[in-house]
Amino acid sequence: MSGITAKELNLLIEQTYKVENEFNELKASYAHLQNTVEKVVEFLPNAIWILDEEGKIFLQNSQAKSLGKLLELLESKNDDYEVSFKKRSYLIKSSTYQDKYMLSATDITEQKRKENLATMGQMAAHLSHEIRNPIGSISLLSSTLKKRVIPENIPIVEEIQKSVYRIDRIIKATLMFSKGIEANITPFMWSDLKESIDMAIGYYAYSKEITFIFPTQKFILNADKDLLEMLFSNFIINAIDAIELDENEEGLVEIVYTSEESCHKFSIYDSGIAIENKKELFEAFKSTKVKGNGLGLVLSRQIAEAHGGGVELMHGARKGFEIKLAK
Description:
Number of domains: 4
CATH superfamily of the largest domain: Histidine kinase-like ATPase, C-terminal domain
CATH topology of the largest domain: Heat Shock Protein 90
Distance between the termini: 99 Å
Strand order of the largest sheet: 2-1-5-4-3
Low-confidence stretches: none
Radius of gyration: 33 Å
Strand content: 15-25%
Oligomer: single chain
Structural class: alpha+beta
Number of helices: 8
């Protein structure tokens, strides 16, 4: 110490403090940078894992934490690939930087569902076009046959006609789904629509004694009559099928009409079995019925929306749906 003057000692102390301050500033800057990186990683919508050279997790976001078991299924690949986990589909990407290895998992379940729906819609539309011509021939021939057969055989021909009507409804629904809904708005009376609905019910085969209660009020609808016929007949036929599966030998289908300031409101009730898979009600090609094609309720909602309204499942004491149509 004798070789160091007081001035040199003070200078050394000052330099030490300066180095310490610079170190603390560098440490704070690094901590801020690390915090920023963590926030950026957390902000990303996909799951992110950053692994060290030993394969241990160096950094991950909350999405990755919730999918911890998925990490065990991932492989080290140069190309992107897909993996299924808990009924979801994920697109996996990976990259390396120095001694770190990064993996990302993006949920593409909804994207794949839409792609599958588009493919199914195209296939269904193609098949519907192919089926339409022979069904038209069968319908024409059955009408001719009904006029010529002996009276005892007329019920058989009528059953053929009902089956053809059912197939024709499926074809129309499929083609409408593939092309989209376009409403041709014209005014008409509810009573005119009711006649068409009654005719559709008459063509539908069922075995139980079912009472139908429809609105008796006189009112005008500004809508596409053909589309509304499909909308209401879809709900009524669903109700008939639900009643057919019920233990009771009798059933009830009731439509209650309410005029609101900006819309027509219809509440459709039935006494059939309860709806099981409510989450899949309005999902295309996923039917809650054994005989369904999974398009009826989807199209009904689209038709209602094309008329400035909508369709909702009711959650009251009675099983039913609420339909709103703009005035």
